[in-house]
Amino acid sequence: LQELVIHRVAGALKTGGPFLFTAPSQPCTWSDLLTGHESVSLGRETYVRMLSSAGFTLLDEFDDEDENHYYAAASV
Predict the structure, then answer these.
(1) pLDDT at position 32, please?
(2) How do residues 31-60 score in pLDDT, each as one tens digit?
(3) Are the beta carbons of 18 and 67 closer than 8 angstroms?
(4) Cα distances (Å, whole numbers) of residue 39 to 19, 24, 32
């Protein structure tokens, strides 16, 4: 499902359009505090591959003060 979302975002953006999302860099699962639903991180290697296959260029990765990992990409 996450790969489908990334491909749909890519199809909706103009060339150079920015895409920012957050997910842990390690594969893992956790219970979302707001919804109680299970959340899944596929891990950095998978996200980088999915971004590339969807037509994105990965521009940057960074962690915020709460240790959330971000992926900043642009459509090509």
Answers:
(1) 93
(2) 999 999 999 999 999 999 999 999 999 999
(3) no
(4) 20, 11, 6
Please tell me the predicted confidence (pLDDT) of residue 54. Answer: 97
Q: Return d(Cα 67, Cα 76) in angstroms, integer.
A: 29
Question: For a pLDDT cut of 70, what percent of the chain falls above it?
Answer: 100
C-alpha distances in Å from residue 44, one per residue of 15, 26, 33, 35: 23, 6, 22, 24
For 34-71, give the DSSP string.
TT--EEEE--HHHHHHHHHHTTEEEEEEEE-TT--EEE
- Dihedral in degrees, nearest 10, Cα atoms 43, 49, 51, 55: 180
